[in-house]
Automatic annotation (TrEMBL):
Gene3D superfamilies: Medium-chain alcohol dehydrogenases, catalytic domain (3.90.180.10), NAD(P)-binding Rossmann-like Domain (3.40.50.720). Pfam families: ADH_N, ADH_zinc_N. Residues 8-344 form the Enoyl reductase (ER) domain. One of its GO terms (molecular function) is zinc ion binding. The keyword Repressor does not apply. Keywords: Metal-binding, Oxidoreductase, Zinc. It comes from Egibacter rhizosphaerae. Belongs to the zinc-containing alcohol dehydrogenase family. Signal peptide: none annotated. This is Alcohol dehydrogenase.
Amino acid sequence: MKAIVYHGAGDRRWEEVPDPKVQDSTDAIVRVDAVTICGTDLHILKGDVPAVTEGRILGHEAVGTVTEVGSSVSTVQPGDRVLVSCITSCGRCRYCREGMYSQCQGGGGWLLGHLIDGTQAEYVRVPFADTSTHPVPEGVSDEETLMLADILPTGYEIGVRYGEVSPGDTVVVVGAGPIGLAAILGATLYSPARIIAVDLADSRLEAAKRFGADVVLNPERDDVAARVRELTEGLGADVAMEAVGIPATFEQCAEIIRPGGRVANLGVHGTPATLHLETLWIKNVTIRTGLVNTFVTPELLKLLEMGRLDVSRFITHRFRMAEFEEAYDVFAAAEESGALKVVLTP
């Protein structure tokens, strides 16, 4: 089969690799019917994730058809359409029992495209298939379901749930890429008073409006902290979500949060950021970080099935798998291409 293989910082290739095989009795082999590229893949290609070693197949998001299962798999069978979760769960360890699947001690966590070969391939081996895949609802397309492999659970769980968004809140989302837009979309489910999106790219700010932002700010033109204070009677944001993964945007969230407010960090950080405890300690600010656990995925699938969640607007570009190299170039140049999520199919 062919796959996108990591060969060190800045080097990824669509090349021939061996087909995956069942290695453990809990495995499933899934034919990939739809796959996408994540901002985390770009971080890997920058060298920000040293655990990803040369020769690794990238990718952790896919929808596909089960072709083979191990002897212990009981809830999926060949022919089933499944969503492959970005997080793998053994389902038995302490953390899995608490719903913190990203910290699985039984051999799971963020494996695909990280510690084992991932989904940007024609086939993928999925460990712990019973607890790491979800059936695709009838009448829901592969493309729509694919948006629930990572970005929607991340935006909703780490942004909205961890940020404790409540009706009447002022929510500021710094970074209007796919994860930030997912957080905006998720926040609208909780009826905040206003959602403010912050980004340097006007194309992404326009997208933020379509996803539910009431106010958009560009730091190159706007004094973000002053505008947030102006809109909140001088208090600051109730919830500030960091959705970029660089020090400046995290520090901006800490600057604009009100006393008693919540900062939710969604971004993947590759370099240290300064935590200004000298000003934050006295403000009763809560800061939460996290790798997505995907415990919200069943809830989001139900909303998708019932037509309460419009995720099709995330998809801006479509490619065949043979065009993976071009797809990466388009996704990486999002400011010029306007790419949000790219979808690749066989």
